[in-house]
């Protein structure tokens, strides 16, 4: 599957069937995560794989989200914010969030390609999750990713229209100026040419 199709195919899956996700598959996801961009290439992220059922249940409680307990595995995404903040100051807080978010998206996409459902969980009691997974005080917990096989993929939730979220050159300007974007016109022509070709 091409990357655009993969991006659109990814869904937050919250209904899992029983199964064991091999460590090899999860490691491949984390391998993709470490190739995400990060501020100053600091790679200040850490990933904890959890398969233990008791721990998964505790995490479900810490997040107060019932469906988590039926997932086949979990990845806890953490970061060392201190190292980023020592270099970039207050802005480092934002960078840590962005670094881990880029890594998380890579994990979700590799899982999607493997037919494994995921859900990005942001709402949880961080202190409780730290306790369950023995995460040090000075490490932040950014997200929990549930992993699980599924029988039905949810229908895609609606997306905002492109024209409502895209501005040209300045905030609020929705007027497309073709003269400023010759490459887009060129691409359009090329795409039309390809479409008109007979198989
Ligand atoms: C930062 C962040 C936090 C989220 N937290 C939760 C969560 O706590 N529980 C949950 O069920 N889904 C959570 N989601 C998933 C969103 O609800 C979901 O991505 C959104 O509804 C769009 O659906 P889709 O992922 O299928 O495209 C979170 C997503 C993001 C990016």
UniProtKB/TrEMBL annotation:
Record's protein name: Nitroreductase domain-containing protein
Keyword terms: Oxidoreductase
Organism: Candidatus Nanoclepta minutus
Homology family: Belongs to the nitroreductase family.
Gene3D superfamilies per record: NADH Oxidase
Matching InterPro entries: Nitroreductase (IPR029479), Nitroreductase-like (IPR000415)
Pfam families per the UniProt record, alphabetical: Nitroreductase
Molecular function terms from GO: oxidoreductase activity
Domain Nitroreductase residues, every copy: 62-149
């Amino acid at each position: 599957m091409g990357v655009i199709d993969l991006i659109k195919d990814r869904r937050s899956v919250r209904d899992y069937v029983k199964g064991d996700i091999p460590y090899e598959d999860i490691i491949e996801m984390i391998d993709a995560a470490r190739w995400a961009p990060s501020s100053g290439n600091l790679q200040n992220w850490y990933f904890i794989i959890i398969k233990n059922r008791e721990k998964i249940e505790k995490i479900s409680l810490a997040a107060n989200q019932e469906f988590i307990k039926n997932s086949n595995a979990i990845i806890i995404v953490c970061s060392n914010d201190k190292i980023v903040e020592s270099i970039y100051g207050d802005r480092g807080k934002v960078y840590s969030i962005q670094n881990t978010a880029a890594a998380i998206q890579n994990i979700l996409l590799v899982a999607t390609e493997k037919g494994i459902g995921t859900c990005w969980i942001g709402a949880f009691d961080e202190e409780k999750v730290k306790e369950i997974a023995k995460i040090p005080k000075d490490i932040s917990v950014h997200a929990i990713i549930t992993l699980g096989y599924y029988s039905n993929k949810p229908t895609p939730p609606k997306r905002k229209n492109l024209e409502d979220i895209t501005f040209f050159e300045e905030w609020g300007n929705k007027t497309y100026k073709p003269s400023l974007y010759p490459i887009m016109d060129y691409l359009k022509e090329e795409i039309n040419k390809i479409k008109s070709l007979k198989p």
